[in-house]
Amino acid sequence: MLTRNCLSLLLWVLFDGGLLTPLQPQPQQTLATEPRENVIHLPGQRSHFQRVKRGWVWNQFFVLEEYMGSEPQYVGKLHSDLDKGEGTVKYTLSGDGAGTVFTIDETTGDIHAIRSLDREEKPFYTLRAQAVDIETRKPLEPESEFIIKVQDINDNEPKFLDGPYVATVPEMSPVGAYVLQVKATDADDPTYGNSARVVYSILQGQPYFSIDPKTGVIRTALPNMDREVKEQYQVLIQAKDMGGQLGGLAGTTIVNITLTDVNDNPPRFPKSIFHLKVPESSPIGSAIGRIRAVDPDFGQNAEIEYNIVPGDGGNLFDIVTDEETQEGVIKLKKPLDFETKKAYTFKVEASNLHLDHRFHSAGPFKDTATVKISVLDVDEPPVFSKPLYTMEVYEDTPVGTIIGAVTAQDLDVGSSAVRYFIDWKSDGDSYFTIDGNEGTIATNELLDRESTAQYNFSIIASKVSNPLLTSKVNILINVLDVNEFPPEISVPYETAVCENAKPGQIIQIVSAADRDLSPAGQHFSFKLAPEAAIKPNFTVRDFRNNTAGIEARRNGYSRRQQELYFLPVIIEDSSYPVQSSTNTMTIRVCRCDSDGTILSCNVEAIFLPVGLSTGALIAILLCIIILLAIVVLYVALRRQKKKDTLMTSKEDIRDNVIHYDDEGGGEEDTQAFDIGALRNPKVIEENKIRRDIKPDSLCLPRQRPPVEDNTDIRDFIDQRLQENDVDPTAPPYDSLATYAYEGSGSIAESLSSIDSLTTEADQDYDYLTDWGPRFKVLADMFGEEESYNSDKVT
């Protein structure tokens, strides 16, 4: 107490005497044992002529966190030099937590904390204090700012924010191998005491792992930990504050550690001998059995490769690895035959694909086992002596000629007889036959190489004891050629010779073709026909390479004298018997330039020397076409004029055709046509009625028709009807063919009932039924009217 008072007096003398003048109040922590000795002195105001005496300013207080006392916790005291203890000074408090967390006694200036504080929530509070006159309410001193710090206590345990942890470490690792580093955090103040000083330890997981107490690094504590023995480990880690001392708070977390696999185990066969049974009918490439070696490792470290050790069966069998099960699959490379060999024995080696050099000293990473395979007998189909039979036969060979034979045998124990027959699904089934017992193949039809040069079909062999067991073989028969066709010129040539050609000039190269199958080295020869060899205009030069040249023999040719030449060429082949043919080549004489280039070979070129140009020839052709057109037009006009004369003639009224552009009104339309032409010629002459207009109604005396029929009229009408029926140029349906001639001395005079001298009631139409089916409708119509009129009279 005495030391503190002396220090305060010394500081007061220094500042008040002007020896020291601080720029701002300096923080200082009180070390008083009594809390009420925490005092902040506020400097009082003096008159301007007086010297201001300033006291020491304490601007920092401390308060314990988590205070659980029944009374408010005393923090400190504010005091002004102007406060004489007379109650004239009032103290006020503002800032963080003023009134809610901290209160001040207005008279004494004592500050208290009215609730428990948490440093981790808010480590300090900044407040402002002022002394005012209680009467005038005026500030006695300027406002001063101070800080209240919350003093930490150990109230937070360490926490592992990233836990629980997962870690891996390879198996068989040495002691001290790094596994993982853990970290715990403590919310307490690390600058005050040991509240935030954390120490790590292992509560569970020893003796396999250890941890550094300061850094939290976990390492292996035992050597050669084997994954195949134990793969998973769970380690419990503790972090304790206060440096691990008694009374410190602690937190824990779990670390799950997995040992990863390394290739430290070789594959091992569970048994030394494997027995397999395989039918002899197993197809090539099929799986006949599986063996397996066991590797306790995992993943790629457990991948196994199987190999057959060279020896018995090495060339008949193969082994591959099943990627999913790591089994060795034995497959057949060649067919098995029980009758040849009944058992096979060989060794199989299993080894790892991915080796770890650290464990080579442990021994070889492979194992060997013996495989014994027993071949089972199976009833098999016959076996042909060849996989393919090829035969040859000449074309036109007589039917029934044997051209070859096939052979099949039953190789099983107790051999059975074999029957042969052609597979009828093939194309050659009708051209050949086979002997079912002997297997001989013979022709069944005449063969033509030019039609079909090769036949391909199948023959099936079956066992007599078991017909369902069959085998098939392909037969290939080549038809050999017989020289029966002569060679001919390969393509039609358009040969031309220039008028200025020279003797010995080759004007065309020709080649030959033979429809026969030409053997290698066949040769064609060319020569001129004997009838053309006398004073020839052209000759043939044989080049001895199956081609020949047409050679000119004259010094120039003239198209005016002869435009075309025909050259007979004889071509022979070299086969037996020799075949030859005479081929006539057409050679045209053409006009060429001095270099031998053909200018023209057509008809126009013949007239060029006369002096006619191309334009003149075109003009001549146009004139001819115009003259032909005039002649055709003249003939057409003459025919049209003759036709009009026939239509307008009044003298010949026997067969007039009147054309109308509109359609008629039917059977009841009596005004559409001039029917006067059907009347008696005498009546027409007397009345002079015009035929091209509608006639006026005439009151003529009615005449009764004769009872008997007029055969002349009927024959005339029948004749005209027949002519019009068979005439392809008969008028269309909108035309009318009139028949005005009724014959001389006809008693009936007119066939028309229109303007008749008699009434319809007096007419007898029974004769219409005798005219045939064409007048059936007309007879029915007039027959109905007649019956109707008779009913009315009745």
TrEMBL record:
The chain crosses the membrane at residues 606-637. GO terms for molecular function: beta-catenin binding; cadherin binding; calcium ion binding. It is a single-pass type I membrane protein. This is Cadherin-12. GO terms for biological process: adherens junction organization; calcium-dependent cell-cell adhesion via plasma membrane cell adhesion molecules; cell migration; cell morphogenesis; cell-cell adhesion mediated by cadherin; cell-cell junction assembly; homophilic cell adhesion via plasma membrane adhesion molecules. Its main location: membrane. Pfam families: CADH_Y-type_LIR (PF01049), Cadherin (PF00028). It is found in: Cell membrane. The keyword Signal applies. The keyword Signal applies. SUPFAM superfamilies: Cadherin-like. One of its GO terms (cellular component) is catenin complex. The gene is CDH12. Cadherins are calcium-dependent cell adhesion proteins. They preferentially interact with themselves in a homophilic manner in connecting cells; cadherins may thus contribute to the sorting of heterogeneous cell types. Keywords: Calcium, Cell adhesion, Cell membrane, Cleavage on pair of basic residues, Glycoprotein, Membrane, Metal-binding, Phosphoprotein, Repeat, Signal, Transmembrane, Transmembrane helix. Residues 80-160, 161-269, 270-384, 385-489, 489-607 form the Cadherin domain. Residues 1-25 form the signal peptide.
